[in-house]
Amino acid sequence: MENNKELFQKCEDHFGPSRFTECRPAEWVLIADLGKFQEDFSFLKNRCQFNLLLDICGVDNLNKKDGCPSGERFEINYHVLNLEEHVRIRVKVYLDDGGSLPSITSLWKGAEWFEREVWDMYGVLFNGKPKERILTHHEFIGHPLRKDFDPKKRIPLSSPLPLAPQDTRKLRGLPEDGHWLNIDPSHPITKGALRVMVNLQGEKIKDVLLEIGYLHRGFEKLCEGLNYNQIIPYTDRLNYCSAALNNIGWCKAVEELMEIEISERAKALRMVFGELARVIDHLISLGTMAEDLGAPTGLWFFMELRERISKLFTSYCGGSINPSLTRVGGMSHDLPLGWVNDCLNTVKSVEHSMDDLSKMFSQLPWWMDKTRVCPIEARDAIEWGFTGPCLRACGINYDLRKVSPYYYYGDVEFEVPLGSKGDVYDKYLVRMEEIRQSLKIITQVLDYLPVGRLNIVDGVSLPEKSEVYKDKKVMDKYRTIIKEGVKVKPGEIYSAIEGANGELGFYIQSDGGNTPYRVKVRPPCFPLFQSFPEIVKGNYLSDAYATLVSLNIVPGELDR
Amino acid sequence: MILKRELYQRHGYFKGILIVLSLQISRLFKLFLRLFKKDEGRLTNSEDQKLSQYKGMLALTVNKQGEVQCTGCGLCQAVCPSDCIDIQFDKKKKGVGAFNIDLLRCVFCGLCEEACPVDGIRHTAEIPRPGHFEQNWNVGIPTLAFRKSLNDGKGLLSEYTLDQKDLDQANKDFLESEGQTNNA
Question: What was the ipTM of the complex prediction?
Fold first, then answer.
């Protein structure tokens, strides 16, 4: 905390109190100057150790009631994280339609895709030039997240992107010789649809081109028309392997923006379901890794465990893949009778099976031959913006549950497993150990599960159904909450939780109504997948497969 | 937490084969034993709740007279995130006239069930399959309330008993929402 103040003072002295303020504890805001843009960022990165670029997010101020302070149309927010002090800074910059921003790819390699996304969605130029499109297709016209874009407009694609297109090759200086191979959108190693094009010389990879956006459903545009509780079923579809964590992340962000405190029981239940979802995500990731590296039976062993945990979700809320189990202000309903007992039994049996599974893979010569490939240096991982198991596999001890604990993560005992080289084997080991730690957390929370009412926030959470049926006054209250939805006061927030793949952040801007003005998801996969070409360059094709599955790319969250 | 050093030490090929073989054989043996245990892998306590919580095909409940419970207040229509419910209010009857659900739009989230103040709509354990509705995915009251799988066409009985006040409230709600759409 003391250091935190020192850092704040240092920044305040440099930028001046008119530009630099504290929005919330550990969330600072800097209004950047377009003239000294690069210098501001290099000061933050090199002198203040703000070294992990989390997200770049645009906002269109066209429909805003009070508009922008200085009348500009666009507002671009850069979120940067200090890994030592665990402070996030939001660098705001305002610019007009047709304006241009200096690119910061020289400071952070990982900024490239985020800048492409801002150009794609808002039409903001970088270094005076348009960038390539990323989430929409290459024949798309217009910028979909602008407020004056008509979402009903259809822009069909006449022909798909050819295999390693000439102009892209020229633009990036890619080799002309060698053999281009297409790993298509429906390849078995992917968990959804994404396209990888590799240039091979013999069996070695010389270059890689990526194309994403096949699962782009316009989640962020959709959110602008829905109220806060209606968005929850859609967050399920972000990372469909661990949907409960997305629900929790979204509700936590909204609750922090509204400054409401949920009940102790709801916090504990969210921890339990979050950890169960993390276990499921890791199991799927490890299972597919085993399958793709030539051990198809491994998949069934992992999937069998996943099935056991899915049953817990089904018996709680009726859906194993899309549970939508949280609500703003609490959970959808209380636990069914006997659920805790079932959960403890399942946790015990999964723990037991994990020991067998780890014997079946760890240390075995054929598994190590295939996985001790494609190491990542810790410095590179930070440059790219890695978070989660992939960052920890590189040896960086950074887990949001440990460093800035939310809910009761400060009170439970667990450890953060670390790798050393950041290769595929390290990622495998880290995930295996994280499953054990998650199960440990679940047993601890269930041992001390707080009692009492679940949804207690007045005016936000719905009254119990049994009370609604009995009392007409409660029913009137119930009707108003449902009809008007949750009202959120004007403001903005970036709130993050430790998702299964890394830091899952939600940036919400509200203008006081019952629908958000702008929502931006910070998907952990986005920076991970961006680094893929650099990691696999110079390695064999089979190593590329191993890397792709170990990064655990989920297109639902990548494309939004 | 630094991982154990042994995890990075490679077994020999022969040892590796022995470990995996012994594990596989013991697994096979356990699987064989499981044939004789019926409860293995089932949740013993909360299994019954599973069916009542299951988010499957939607159903409208009926009251004791065998009519549809729904009052037509339109709360589920307002709360539906995918806009799949379409309710037409019958002004003469002061009740629901038509209730249609576009099943291809429905995301089975359960918000409508939660929003209904009179226990009029529920998710059942039935899973909608491609052949169910003869390509007619926009289903109305006959399918939603009186299909064969619900008590042999009699429908599910609602837990809540309606009174006049609920009907008046529904009428008021409907007029309000109509006023809003007219203004818009």
Answer: 0.82
